[in-house]
Amino acid sequence: MGLISRFFGRKNPLDIPIDKLRENQVKLDMQIKKIEDEIAEMDRQIALLFEQAKKARSKSEELTIATKIKTLNKRKQSLQNTHAQLNKQAMLVSNLLIIKENEALLKGTPTWELLRKMSPEELEKHLVSMQLDSQNINENLNKMLGYTDQALGAGVELEEDEELQEILRTIQAVKEGELEPEIAAERVTKEKARETEVE
User: Fold this and answer.
1) Dihedral sign of CA atoms 182, 186, 187, 189 in order
2) How far apart, in whole angstroms, are the C-alpha atoms of residue 199 and residue 78?
3) Which of 1, 20, 66, 129 is deepest in the core (most CB within 10 A)?
4) Gap between the Cα atoms of 116 and 107, Å rounded
5) What is the pLDDT of residue 147?
């Protein structure tokens, strides 16, 4: 099921009313902001855990803290995946809005006919991957119609134990004064973010 059909049913995307698209755009913007706030809170909690790890008196206490950091990282990764999906949806809705706002100019052109003939899935695939604006709509739509699929490289997931070991090594660096808790948190969460991007 495509992004459009999830929100608007099986309609041709070009038949969706502008007011529905605008309403959806506002909802998506609010969801994206909420997730960004949650991700920032996760970063703050991870930094606090590294601060707490500085004072850990035993390996078992360090392991407990590392496990909490790992759990937060997994939750953050899940939020980042959701954030990426919401951004795709926002791009799709934004591009559809621009097309709909320029419908009068486009109707009757070969570009409009090609758009109408595309399947909803094909149109959606192209609209998610490009940034339209009112000034360059014709040029970008013409480019879009010539686009071909690009395969995304599949990321390699780290073994869970390896991730935990990396967090424990980072805790050790914090305890020995080699890293500040904020930098340690950044390092651990950025590594996780890179994995998410690769996937």
Assistant:
1) positive
2) 12
3) 66
4) 10
5) 37
Q: Which residue has the higher pLDDT, 18 or 152?
A: 18
The length of the chain in residues reads: 199
Query: How many CA within 13 A on the CB side of residue 148?
Result: 1
Q: Is it the case that residue 145 has pLDDT exceeding 80?
A: no
Give CA–CA dist 66/184, Å, rounded: 12
Structure tokens at 60: 């078992």
Can you give the pTM of this predicted structure? 0.67
The mean pLDDT of the chain is: 79
CB distance 77 to 196 below 8 Å: yes
Please list, in sequence order, all residues whose beta carbon lies within 8 angstroms of the beta carbon of residue 12, skipping any fewer than 6 positions away: 116, 120
Q: Where are the domains of the chain?
A: 19-101+162-198
> Coil, helix or strand for 107?
coil
